[in-house]
Specification:
By secondary structure, the chain is mainly beta. 0% of the residues lie in helices and 55% in strands. The chain has a single domain, classed as OB fold (Dihydrolipoamide Acetyltransferase, E2P), CATH 2.40.50. The radius of gyration is 12 Å and the shape is globular.
């Protein structure tokens, strides 16, 4: 079983999205293969089928683990749960 991390998705410093944890720390997020991040007005994460799985501002629970890269969380596609939505 993978580990879990919870936090709010925030716009990253690069082309992606970061996770801000309750303690204020911020982690880079490495999404599973096929997942993409839209940098347009909607700022959404979509899976390989084009389904929106999360948005910047959502509070999420992500399964996965430390990637071995500097401060990055590698997400497993089997556990991506939006616990509080930022959608209007």
């Amino acid at each position: 079983m993978s580990a879990l991390v919870e936090g709010q998705l925030v716009t990253g410093t690069g082309p992606g999205v970061n996770l801000k944890k309750a303690d204020g720390s911020v982690k880079d997020v490495i999404w599973p293969d096929g997942y993409t991040f839209s940098t347009g007005d909607k700022r959404t994460v979509t899976d390989g089928q084009g389904t929106v799985v999360a948005r910047v501002g959502d509070t999420v629970e992500l399964g996965g683990g430390e990637s071995g890269l500097d401060n990055a969380w590698k997400v497993c596609s089997d556990h991506i749960v939006v616990t509080a939505s930022a959608a209007p």
